[in-house]
Amino acid sequence: MKKYITCALITLFATLAVSIAAPPDKDAIMAKENAAWQAFKDKKADDFKKVVSADFRGAYAEGISNMQKELDDMKKWDMKSFTISDYSAISDGADTIVTTYTVKVEGTFEGKDASGTYNAGSVWKMHKGAWMAIFHTNVKAEAAAE
User: Fold this and answer.
1) pLDDT per residue as tens digits for the range 83-117
2) Domains, the chain, with CATH or none
3) Which of 42, 50, 79, 107 is deepest in the core (most CB within 10 A)?
């Protein structure tokens, strides 16, 4: 009987710990987002894979993407710089975070200027103790009419 009570208490405490576990703060998930962009800019596929899920999906003006396409596109970019601003993060449970932000990019894609300001968003999922990007999208912001 004592064994059953011990098991029940362990289960109860484990359940409580999981249910009150807080998602990372905004700065922590923004650091992950920056790490993904930096790895992409620096063409460091191994670092990119540390923060982006192997099952990643993306949706862009030029089409739908997966991890392999992202890695292939990484080679076609010559990104000089990126700056993230207006960063916002919300949590949908303890294991999912949705982010939105603006990113200013300077660089070329396949030799053509791709510089500009983009509206972007990502979905992050806790996987085996680490936050991994599972979805990303961005679209070039249109210039405001004057």
Assistant:
1) 999 999 999 788 999 999 999 999 999 999 999 99
2) 23-140 (3.10.450.50)
3) 79
